[in-house]
Specification:
By secondary structure, the chain is an alpha/beta fold. Helices cover 40% and strands 15% of the residues. It has helices at 4-8, 11-20, 41-49, 68-81, 110-133, 142-157, 193-196, 200-207, 224-236, 295-313, 320-327; strands at residues 59-63, 86-89, 101-103, 106-107, 161-165, 180-185, 217-219, 241-243, 248-253, 271-276, 283-289.
Length: 328
């Protein structure tokens, strides 16, 4: 859809002003404050006003201190390559808000953004009125509204899979109202300690809040303290856990120093040889080209392949070529 008309007549700018006029913890120095406002009650009510679009979505839910955005993009790219209509929700954006919500690698248009904002306005107004009577409820935030927009967009588009990146933490993140078919935790390190805790164990507990009963978890965490917490939560929820270094492994070969420039070679971030035991026959893929530079991206690529392998055992038909192309 062409969004130029909405830009010209001011509807697009009005929509952005509406969104950026909300509480936006991404743009505050101290981030989300501790207290009652950090919960999922508002998000549930907001989505209920919209008819609970998240209930129709088959989601891949990704948390982690680092790597979750790159991992989400690789997974979504492979799913699109396999022929699945795939929604991708990430944050923050670099230049345009539409970057946060994409379908099959194409960002939503200004026109679609305006339509989504207009669809959410009555629900936001309803919760604003409720907040006037119940201060503990609080007003819908920028991230809550944009998350609801993504859920509504993907439901309207009837995507086959929605790949959702957690914004902050996991347990109380706005995305944690989804119904995942697989959850992913990429890594644990110190971040947002004011909200998540000042130990790796505390942070891991918040990230592992996305783990759902009986839903498989792909875990890229290897540190003892953080891993122990994640394993405990997975066991309590009877969630099968597939761990890096145990259930899936990889070897990384960095690119040669004389590699061509990035824009002249697909997948110039090096190669990984991947192995897993996620299915009875296991998966073995050698020489997977990684599209982004750095050994840390090789880790993300292995986590993405493990997630795709898990989806294969759940019935998704994802060819080797789609996996290779998606990672590259």
């Amino acid at each position: 859809m062409d969004g130029s008309a909405d830009v010209r007549d001011g509807k697009y700018q009005t929509a952005l002003e509406f969104l950026y006029g909300r509480i936006n913890y991404e743009r505050t120095a101290r981030g989300v404050p501790c207290g009652s406002r950090l919960n999922l009650d508002r998000m549930r009510q907001l989505l209920a006003c919209m008819g609970n679009p998240q209930d129709s979505l088959k989601a891949v839910h990704i948390a982690g201190t680092k790597g979750k955005g790159s991992t989400a993009v690789m997974i979504a790219s492979a799913l699109t390559g396999a022929g699945y209509q795939t929604g991708l929700y990430t944050s923050p954006h670099l230049e345009r808000l539409e970057e946060r919500i994409s379908m099959d690698g194409v960002d939503c248009t200004p026109t679609e953004l305006v339509e989504l904002v207009d669809a959410l306005r009555p629900a936001v107004a309803q919760l604003d009125r409720a907040a006037e009577e119940d201060a503990e409820l609080g007003n819908p935030t920028f991230f809550e509204i944009t998350t609801a927009m993504a859920m509504l967009c993907f439901a309207r588009r009837k995507v086959d899979v929605a790949v959702l990146e957690v914004g902050l933490g996991g347990r109380l993140d706005s995305t944690n109202i989804c119904r995942p078919v697989v959850t992913v935790i990429t890594s644990i390190s110190f971040d947002h300690t004011q909200q998540l805790g000042n130990t790796l164990a505390a942070i891991a507990r918040e990230k592992a809040g996305i783990v759902k009963p009986d839903i498989p978890l792909i875990c890229g965490v290897t540190q003892g303290e953080a891993l122990s917490v994640i394993e405990q939560i997975a066991a309590e929820r009877h969630a099968p856990i597939h761990r890096a270094g145990k259930d899936f492994t990889f070897e990384y070969t960095p690119p040669p120093r004389d590699s061509p420039p990035r824009d002249s070679l697909l997948g110039c971030g090096g190669l990984i040889d991947y192995r897993d035991s996620l299915s009875p026959q296991g998966t073995r893929l050698d020489g997977i080209s990684v599209g982004m530079l750095g050994s840390h991206q090789a880790v993300n690529a292995a986590i993405a392949v493990a997630t795709l392998s898990c989806l294969q055992t759940d019935g998704c038909k994802i060819s080797e070529s789609a996996i290779r192309q998606g990672i590259a």
